[in-house]
Design a protein that fits this description.
heterodimer, A: 84 residues, mainly alpha, elongated, B: 578 residues, Sodium/glucose cotransporter, 71% helix, CC_star_Cory (chain A), DNA helicase (chain A), DUF7990 (chain A), cell membrane (chain B), CstA_N (chain B)
């Protein structure tokens, strides 16, 4: 019974591999847009909620390097954050 | 002889190929290293680069490459007798497809997970990349035309399958939406969808009102209908237009909305189809009635056999999957052997059962010969014979023949539709990429690129005239599909050979199948372009096929010249093997 369950799990995993990937990609695109909004003030776009989004700084800083690479910028675009 | 003997012989050969030859390739040629850090581990981003369990990856790879093509090619090629088709499928899978699929994964893994197109640019040069794009463009154009023709043909010959295929679309959208909203997994809903589709197939097999038969609506076979066309031609045209509108929408929607949930349901169908056929074979134990070789063939098997069966023996399309997605998900380099080589073996097994279904279908040799009376007749009736043969095998497990033929049609149409969707999408991307390359801005726009893809595919499906007039010309494209596919496989094998040579290793296992493929493709194309389509001699001119065939011929010659020049140089550029 346990092995039957394992077979079903394996089968499901095989078939859902591309779907999981696509949903993850969609979510990452949303996240990227959100990060752009968060960094907008530092990039020169006025953001009235800047003082509040600043609180998220410790969380977003970890993802900053991957984000700017994905956005096509090889080096950090911000003076204040020197990740690479 | 019993049909099961063919399955056993094929099974043993595939097993030996995997155990012995793929081991030799893994250890002596590709020298797989269990400690090598694969791109999936090095660039793990949780999306494109994800280390994946080898069985999961094998399953995914196999379902991506298996489709209607390995079924259709063998069903036509048995015209020359069962032995040539069987030998090409078995030996092609072991010595060509296995090396190709396995090799493209390794090549890509050793080059940061880059695709064969990018690697062509690196190993051969910029011109090779553009050439590569054009060949893929040609291939997807052929795929679109051939598979649209296949679907329209099956809808006309098996109208009971239409309802199930159309029911699948809203069900797939619902499932896609449900998963996107994270309301649960896909397994159970997709199984329900499958049951609903097959229930519709069973119902439609018995209730004529549920059979969407356009030929009947247009007044029945032989009647004159729209624009003075026969009812069959009118039905064909309407189906092609409906299909093209559908693929336009399907290929511009985000993939999670329709394409992926549909693929998911169709993957069940692959399992169902293979199980029904192999189990049916085991229970019915049918006799082979087709001849060993056809001594009265009106078209010689050499070299046409090698392009008639492309997928199932070797297919360039696999290289796109191997280097496009699979190589980015390989957790350990040694898994490449199982994923790539065994993936090719899976495709070979599909082609093998297609051969068996057709060669055991006819009650006697006389009836086989009457249907397969000439190569053109084989092209026209091959698919129908597979559906009928597969339905006969399915009766072995107690499925009534009319229901079985509807379900087999649904399975084949689903495979063809999946391929059609993805290839229109792929064509759209390539047109955009060419637009960027040549700075033609409108071509980079989604709707412009999709319109170009859909309109050109429609024209190519509708224009060639077959012996039975409008709509029967689709099968004329089959050899063109085969050649462009083999050409692509040839380039990938060439890249593997160049890479191996630059590593100072034995490159013959890649070079020999490459030379073989190129030789056959050149010969077959030259023969068809010069003698069949150019109007030279007694045949009529077929401008459309002449132009397409001519382009493929020129590309093939170009690649061979490039290959000779690159292989003869001791160039060490672009050597990466990190």
């Amino acid at each position: 019974m346990k092995s039957l369950k394992q077979i079903f799990e394996l089968y499901d995993e095989i078939l859902s591999l591309p779907h999981k990937q696509e949903v993850a990609r969609e979510l990452r695109d949303e996240d990227d847009l959100f990060l752009l909004l968060l960094y907008s003030d530092m990039l020169g776009i006025p953001n009235p909620a800047f003082y509040y989004t600043l609180e998220l700084y410790p969380y977003i800083i970890e993802r900053f390097h991957d984000w700017h690479l994905r956005m096509g910028m090889d080096k950090s675009p911000l003076e204040g954050i020197r990740c690479c | 002889m019993n049909g099961i003997v063919l399955a056993i012989v094929g099974g043993i050969m595939f097993f030996l190929g995997y155990r012995i030859y793929s081991k030799y390739l893994a250890e002596k040629i590709f020298r797989l290293d269990p400690n090598y850090v694969t791109p999936a581990n090095r660039y793990n981003d949780g999306i494109d680069f994800v280390p994946t369990n080898k069985w999961v990856l094998w399953g995914h790879h196999f379902t991506s490459v298996a489709g209607a093509a390995p079924i259709l090619g063998p069903a036509i090629a048995v015209y020359w007798g069962w032995l040539p088709a069987l030998l090409w499928v078995i030996l092609g899978t072991i010595f060509a497809a296995g090396v190709h699929d396995f090799g493209t994964i390794v090549l890509s893994v050793r080059n940061k997970g880059q695709s064969v197109g990018t690697l062509a640019n690196k190993l051969i040069g910029q011109r090779a990349k553009i050439l590569f794009l054009f060949i893929i463009l040609l291939l997807v154009l052929m795929v679109n035309a051939v598979f649209a023709w296949v679907i329209a043909n099956l809808f006309i010959s098996n109208p009971s399958s239409v309802l199930s295929v159309f029911i699948q679309i809203p069900l797939a959208i619902l499932i896609g939406y449900r998963v996107y909203k994270r309301k649960g997994g896909m397994l159970l809903p997709s199984l329900f969808a499958l049951v609903a589709m097959y229930a519709a197939a069973v119902l439609a097999s018995y209730v004529p009102a549920l059979q969407i038969d356009l030929v009947r609506y247009f007044g029945g076979e032989g009647a004159t209908s729209l624009f003075g066309m026969s009812a069959t031609s009118a039905a064909f045209m309407v189906w092609i237009i409906i299909l093209m509108i559908y693929v336009y929408i399907a290929s511009t929607l985000p993939v999670w909305k329709l394409l992926q949930p549909r693929d998911y349901i169709n993957s069940h169908q692959l399992v169902v189809g293979l199980s029904i056929l192999y189990l049916g074979l085991f229970f019915t134990l049918p006799q082979v009635t087709a001849p060993v070789t056809n001594t009265n063939a009106d078209t010689p098997w050499f070299p046409l056999l090698f392009i008639t069966i492309a997928c199932g023996a070797i297919s360039g399309f696999h290289g796109l999957v191997s280097s496009g997605t699979t190589s980015k998900q390989l957790a350990n380099e040694v898994d490449a052997r199982q994923v790539g080589y065994l993936g090719a073996v899976g495709e070979g097994a599909l082609a093998l059962i297609s051969i068996i279904a057709v060669v055991t279908f006819f009650p006697s040799l006389g009836e086989f010969s009457a249907v397969y009376s000439g190569f053109e007749a084989a092209n026209e009736s091959g698919l129908g014979n597979f559906v009928a043969g597969a339905a006969q095998l399915a009766t072995g497990i107690g499925i009534p023949e009319s229901v079985a033929s509807t379900i087999v049609s649904v399975i084949v149409v689903s495979f063809a539709a999946t391929t059609l969707d993805s290839s229109v999408r792929l064509m759209r991307y390539i047109i955009s990429e060419l637009g960027e390359e040549y700075k033609i801005r409108p071509m980079t726009k989604m709707h412009v690129a999709t319109s170009i893809a859909v309109v050109s595919s429609t024209v190519l499906t509708l224009l060639p005239e077959g012996s039975r007039g409008f709509g029967s010309g689709g099968y004329l494209l089959w050899p063109l599909f085969g050649t462009s596919n083999q050409l692509l496989a040839g380039i990938s094998l060439l890249l593997i050979a160049i890479w191996l040579k630059r590593q100072g290793r034995n490159y013959w296992p890649a070079l020999v199948p490459m030379a073989f493929l190129m030789f056959m493709t050149l010969w077959a194309m030259a023969q068809q372009v010069i003698f069949d389509w150019s109007g030279f001699g007694e045949t009529d001119t077929n401008m459309l096929l002449f132009i397409f065939g001519g382009i493929i011929l020129i590309f093939a010659i170009w690649i061979i010249l490039t290959a000779i020049s690159v292989l003869s140089k001791n160039n060490q550029d672009g050597i990466p093997n990190e």
